[in-house]
Amino acid sequence: MIRIELDEASLGATRIAISPLWDAFCSLHLALPHRTPSWPYEEWAGRAREVLRDDERTRPLRLLTHGPHGFPDFLLPRPAGASSVDAELDIVRATPADVVRAGVREHYAEMEDHPFVRPYVDDPEAACATLAEAYAAYWEGALEQHWPTMRRLVEDEVLVRARTFATEGVDALFAGLESRASWKPPVLELTKHIEADYRAGERRLLLIPLVFAEGCRLYSTDDPEVLAVSFQARGAAALRDRSAGPGAACGDRLGLLLGRGRASVLRQLGGPLTTAGLADRLGLAPSTVSEHLSVLADAGVVTRHRVGRSVYYQLTDTGRSLLALLAGEDVLRAVS
């Protein structure tokens, strides 16, 4: 269990950021041969394993999956406001040599002669450049085609969490974070296979939603300014094979009443989502989803509100009650 004590200053400065590189790192762990990914990731994992096996450029990534539990931040820098993987890889390449060697001394003191570690001691600049190229090769083969969908998922998550934080406060933000995190003020607990306690001190908290958080949960403690923690974004089913997956249950009373399309739209609205976000999750055309939403809005089970250029839909109390009564789903206290 990881316990992070947060004071008022760090809580007040809490931010939410997007990081394709953090998602790539977690997806690496989900693609390991011994892992059995859940349904939305199964087909993707098969392709990712082929990339790691067949593309020799990805070899340096093995340090990230076969090393100790902890690792220096230069291998996975904190997001710096950039939402492109190329910008994050430029940060990896630009890591100062003294920062690299200090990270190796702290995290790999007993492994400095390991063939995956030694390059970072002998020639940090070249090693970081090689690592960035390994990330890039893996991204191109395993994740690039999925990034437009992934980006919409994490951007939706940022907007939902930011709205919750602004309107309901930090307790509501953490309460709806995810199952592997619990908030017992002033301590945020993360379920991990190691025991550690940290105090944020003067650092601000940075939350990072990931589509591939099933692979691993990340937290960063080396940075003197930021304490970063990842969490699972909703909507990972958008990655699934459209021709596979569980079929509709025979006893689907909600589907019988509304039709399967509208029932599936209603089930996805645990928090505010756009038409495009729902279309990604359900594998339906945006025009089809828009038609379903229009009918559901007219029936008073969903409501819509505009944020900038985007229109977000969410369940009304009537919609939550309908799901609870006909689908047996406990959404009466869903995040809104």
Automatic annotation (TrEMBL):
<dbReference type="GO" id="GO:0003677">
    <property type="term" value="F:DNA binding"/>
</dbReference>
<keyword id="KW-0805">Transcription regulation</keyword>
<protein>
    <submittedName>
        <fullName>Helix-turn-helix transcriptional regulator</fullName>
    </submittedName>
</protein>
<keyword id="KW-0238">DNA-binding</keyword>
<dbReference type="Pfam" id="PF12840">
    <property type="entry name" value="HTH_20"/>
</dbReference>
<keyword id="KW-0804">Transcription</keyword>
<dbReference type="InterPro" id="IPR001845">
    <property type="entry name" value="HTH_ArsR_DNA-bd_dom"/>
</dbReference>
<feature type="domain" description="HTH arsR-type">
    <location>
        <begin position="242"/>
        <end position="336"/>
    </location>
</feature>
<dbReference type="InterPro" id="IPR036390">
    <property type="entry name" value="WH_DNA-bd_sf"/>
</dbReference>
<dbReference type="GO" id="GO:0003700">
    <property type="term" value="F:DNA-binding transcription factor activity"/>
</dbReference>
<dbReference type="InterPro" id="IPR036388">
    <property type="entry name" value="WH-like_DNA-bd_sf"/>
</dbReference>
<dbReference type="InterPro" id="IPR051011">
    <property type="entry name" value="Metal_resp_trans_reg"/>
</dbReference>
<dbReference type="InterPro" id="IPR011991">
    <property type="entry name" value="ArsR-like_HTH"/>
</dbReference>
